[in-house]
Specification:
The complex is a heterodimer.
Chain A lengths: L1 E4 L13 E4 L4 H11 L4 H6 L1 E5 L2 E3 L13 E5 L5
Parallel strand pairs in A: 1-5
Antiparallel strand pairs in A: 1-2, 3-4, 3-5
Chain B lengths: L32 H5 L15 E7 L5 E7 L1 H5 L3 E5 L10 H10 L4 E2 L5 E7 L2 H10 L1 E6 L6 H4 L24 E9 L2 H7 L2 E9 L11 E6 L5 E5 L4 H12 L6 E5 L15 H11 L3 E4 L2 H7 L5 E10 L5 E11 L8 H8 L8 E8 L14 H19 L3 H7 L19 H10 L1 H4 L6 E10 L6 E7 L5 E5 L7 H13 L6 E5 L16 H28 L6 E4 L2 E4 L10 E2 H5 L10 E6 L7 E11 L6 E11 L6 H20 L30 E6 L21 H13 L10 H9 L2
Parallel strand pairs in B: 1-12, 10-11, 14-15, 18-19, 25-26
Antiparallel strand pairs in B: 1-5, 2-4, 2-6, 3-5, 7-15, 8-13, 9-10, 9-12, 13-14, 16-24, 17-18, 17-23, 20-21, 21-22, 24-25
Helix pairs in contact in B: 7-8, 10-11, 11-19, 12-13, 15-16, 18-19
The chains are: A alpha+beta, B alpha+beta.
Chain lengths: 81, 756
């Protein structure tokens, strides 16, 4: 299981939780796992989020690996100039 | 991680960085230099086609109005007019961002801002097209408007577009608030209670335009068979292809887009404005259509950055430890969602290692043009607010601004305000370089102040494809799909030269069109030297593998027994045999007869873009009679990871600082009571010119990014983050007034001095 940290504004859709445990081996499975546990997150995730894994911001790569002890944060989708 | 648990920063572990580079890090001539100084380079407006028509756009003079009727009959009757398009000539049924872009490109039933496009005309000359624009009759029902971000959030503010609000927005907020972000960690009450001094301030910044020299331009051909060609100035022709195909309702593969040379973008050319309109006109007229914006159109209808309203509260102990930081950021994004409020919040406290931090961002709609990215979107205004309060805390407590920042600096292993634990970052090295710089020791003149500020940007990877082809004569051609907005052709050639072991001058890099290369994300997010560079390195390695195979084949040994060094295949290991090194040229001249052409390819979405920090030092003085602020000395210190072409890196640092100086001191969108933009030309919208700027000194810090083979970090955006605050801090040091509203134009400074 991987502990996924959410930005605190999302807790309204996770019964107050800002850390959610999911069974995942990559970023795609992290996002799928979050939606399975908290379906209200689906459209927010579909609208676009980035995932920080062990300090590295994954902007779009669903196949990026995640280990059980990885530090995982859901953050705002990045857009640059 | 708490402050008392800070660990020393580790050296890079994963990147393959070399002790010595042959090509990377040299200051070679730019490949596009001769073309640009001789006028041979082709920009957006330089394209022509046989039978070409000229397009012009009918724009709303109102900030907010229902469109009751558009009568184009008189315009169509004018001799020379060949086509007129309105919203009905574009695709129907779009959703999400495509719908928003189309709504901005051509209004449907409501004009949402002064300058919003309502119809377009193609005629045999530009003059006729512009005359025809005046003949289009539009009936409006004027609606109440709002252009200020705080006003747009008030309960009685006019609703700009109902139904746009994300469910993330807290209940009870005005429909103009379309998105909300909240983050942070720690006990805020305990954090502020621990402080010896707490300062709370309100800040505002005005919208600033990217101010690129080259206005938007496009030449489009779209036949009735649904196949088209488009030439345009853009930061990303693949996204132009995808978006335009959706907006005019054709298959993506049927539209070939070629990027022109680009006269600046800075984020403002990451979307489309004219391009789909030119395509729709061309389809209707069955002739090529060229469109070029005037400067007034650029300012009225293309994306400036957001304006912002921000509240910052920071607590500090007497010895300079920050105990808690809170920031609320409200950014308006025009009459559309997507203002970078969340990124402003996430970037705001990035330089600081905080036990207690709370950040909130509100995206707000107003009757202004759709905001577009501008160098590190959201970060400069957030840095202005946070770094101003940190400076005021240091001033009040009598602390050194750099020493205090070092004491609280984010570093590897500390927790970022937006959540994750930092990987290897270079903020401490930048602060130490600033501390040691002669600028910090130089005496100030009377009435001069010195300001310091730090800034942060994430940087980005993104989808990337690169192809490298070797020629028989041993030279190489590289095709990239990222328009060269900051010297990337030189950087790609240097990195390929390092891998191939051939001379820089023997490599030509071309920005390939959408029909000849796989998909590439836009040149944005400071991603190109990182992502296209990584892809170029890997494409070159792919070619090197094939070169080694050919040498092995000729020598009759296993390919694994061949290595590549100094541009030659060499036998490796005791059992490989004794053979003279075989140069690249020796292999390529026979490649057609030994298995065919040799190329290298790489396609990926690299996700290891290292973040970048910078620290700026500014000396400025203020004329107390006129209120004019002059920047006397300026130094940029920034982490580049590894500077592939140091001159270009320095140019990016200087460019960011110059644009920041403009944003800080003069640039602003001025709206009248009627919601119309008042300053639509560069005479009134004042960007800095050479005489406004000192020579901007630069220091390149190199803390390698573990996510890139050579340690590269993007450098294009961070440079605009610290200037707004650094200049405000210098002004405060010079005349003792704390400016909390940008721009710090002479009238505002005079008012502050009078109230002093």
């Amino acid at each position: 299981m991987v502990e996924v940290n959410l930005w605190s504004g999302l807790r309204r859709f996770t019964d107050g939780a800002v850390v959610v445990e999911v069974d995942a081996k990559n970023v795609g499975e992290v996002l799928t796992g979050l939606v399975q546990k908290h379906p209200e997150l689906e459209d927010i995730i579909e609208a676009g989020v980035s995932v920080a894994v062990d300090g590295k911001v994954i902007a779009s790569g669903l196949t990026e690996k995640v280990r059980p002890d990885s530090e995982v944060f859901i953050i705002q989708q990045l857009k640059g100039g | 991680m708490a402050l008392d648990k800070v660990v020393p920063q580790n050296g890079p572990e994963e990147y393959e960085g070399r002790e010595k580079y042959t090509h990377v890090g040299t200051r070679v001539d730019r490949p596009d230099g001769l073309d640009k100084v001789t006028g041979r380079a082709k920009f957006g407006a330089d394209a022509h086609a046989p039978g070409m028509l000229h397009g012009a756009i009918v724009r709303s003079p109102h900030a907010h109005a229902k469109i009751l009727k558009i009568d184009t009959s008189k315009a169509e009757a004018l001799a020379g007019v060949k086509a007129v398009v309105t919203r009905a000539d574009f695709a129907a049924g779009l959703e999400g961002e495509d719908w928003n872009i189309l709504e901005n490109v051509m209004a449907s039933d409501t004009a949402l801002y002064d300058g919003h496009a309502l119809a377009a005309i193609a005629a045999t000359s530009s003059l006729i097209a512009r005359d025809a624009v005046k003949l289009v009759e539009v009936e409006y029902e004027l609606l109440p408007h709002v252009t200020d971000v705080d006003e747009a959030m008030k309960p009685d503010a006019p609703v700009i577009r109902a139904g746009q609000q994300s469910k993330l927005v807290p209940e009870g907020m005005h429909p103009n608030v379309v998105n909300y972000y909240e983050g942070g960690h720690g006990d805020m009450v305990a954090g502020f209670a621990e402080a010896d001094l707490v300062i709370e301030r309100h800040f505002t910044t005005e919208a600033a335009h990217q101010g690129y020299i080259e206005p938007h331009a496009a030449l489009a051909t779209l036949g009735n068979d649904g196949t088209g060609e488009l030439w345009c100035c853009t930061q990303g022709h693949f996204i132009v292809q995808k978006t335009c195909a959706a907006l005019v309702g054709i298959d993506t593969s049927q539209l070939r887009v070629t990027a022109s040379e680009i006269g600046g973008g800075f984020g403002g050319k990451t979307t489309v404005f004219l391009e789909p309109v030119a395509l729709a006109l061309s389809r209707k007229a069955n002739r090529p259509v060229k469109m070029v914006m005037s400067r007034s159109e650029v300012l009225r209808a293309t994306g400036p950055t957001s304006s912002a309203s921000m509240d910052i509260k920071i607590g500090m102990t007497k010895d300079g430890r920050i105990t808690a930081g809170k920031g609320v950021f409200r950014l308006q994004g025009g009459a559309f969602p997507d203002a970078p409020a969340g990124m402003a919040a996430e970037c705001s406290f990035a330089p600081y290692n905080l036990n207690a931090v709370s950040i909130e961002g509100y995206e707000v709609m107003a009757n202004r043009p759709k905001q577009a990215a501008y160098r590190a979107p959201g970060s400069p205004m957030a840095a202005f607010a946070v770094e101003s309060v940190v400076d005021e805390l240091c001033q009040t407590l009598g602390l050194d601004p750099i020493e205090t920042r070092l004491k609280n600096a984010s570093r590897e292993g500390t927790k970022a305000a937006y959540g994750p634990t930092w990987d290897r970052i270079g903020l401490v090295e930048c602060l130490e370089a600033a501390q040691a710089h002669p600028h910090m020791q130089a005496p100030l003149r009377e009435s001069e102040g010195r300001g310091v500020a730090a800034g942060f940007w994430f940087n980005h990877g993104g989808e990337t494809s690169v192809s490298l082809a070797l020629s028989e004569d041993g030279t190489a051609q590289i095709s990239v799909g990222t328009p060269d907005i900051g010297g990337s052709r030189a950087s790609m050639a240097l990195m390929a030269a390092e891998i191939l072991g051939i001379e820089y001058k023997n490599i030509r890099v071309t920005v390939a069109d959408t029909a000849t290369l796989g998909y590439n994300d836009v040149s944005h997010g400071s991603r190109v030297t990182y992502a296209s560079g990584l892809a170029t390195i890997n494409a070159a390695k792919d070619a090197v593998g094939k070169l080694c195979d050919r040498a092995a084949q000729r020598w009759g040994i296993d390919p694994e027994a061949v290595i590549w060094e100094d541009g030659c295949a060499k036998p490796a290991g005791p059992n490989a045999g004794q053979f003279d090194p075989m140069p690249l040229k020796e292999i390529t001249k026979r490649m057609g007869r030994t298995g065919g052409p040799i190329s290298g390819h790489f396609e990926a979405t690299p996700e290891g873009a290292g973040v970048s920090f910078g620290v700026h030092i500014v000396d400025a003085h203020v004329d107390r009679e006129t209120g004019k602020t002059s920047v006397d000395r300026y130094t940029v210190i920034q982490d580049a990871g590894k500077a592939v072409h140091p001159t270009y890196v320095e140019g990016q640092f200087q460019g960011g600082a110059a644009q920041g100086i403009g944003w800080a001191l003069n640039e602003e969108y001025v709206y009248g009571e009627d919601g119309r933009l008042q300053n639509t030309v560069f005479l009134d919208y004042r960007i800095p010119v050479a005489s406004d700027l000192p020579m901007i000194d630069t220091v390149i810090v190199e803390v390698p990014n573990p996510g890139h083979p050579f340690g590269v970090r993007g450098v294009g955006e961070t440079g605009i983050c610290p200037p707004l605050a650094a200049i405000a801090n210098a002004v405060s040091g010079a005349v003792g007034v704390r400016m909390t509203s940008l721009p710090m134009s002479p009238p505002k400074i005079l008012k502050a001095l009078k109230e002093q």
